[in-house]
Design goal:
By secondary structure, the protein is mostly helical. It has helices at residues 2-21, 27-44. The protein has one domain (2-44).
Length: 45
């Protein structure tokens, strides 16, 4: 569970950085989706 939480936090930080760097409105939803999928993947492993 700790790994999943850490992964989600990393995904959130990456998303925040992405927003600050280019703020692309197409990349943002896909980045959120990717972070959730990766978090869910690690939560089930």
């Amino acid at each position: 569970m700790t790994q999943a939480v850490r992964t989600i936090q990393d995904g959130y930080l990456g998303l925040k950085l992405l927003l600050e760097v280019n703020g692309d409105r197409i990349l943002v939803p896909s980045a959120i989706g990717a972070a959730l999928v990766i978090g869910a993947h690690f939560a089930t492993v």
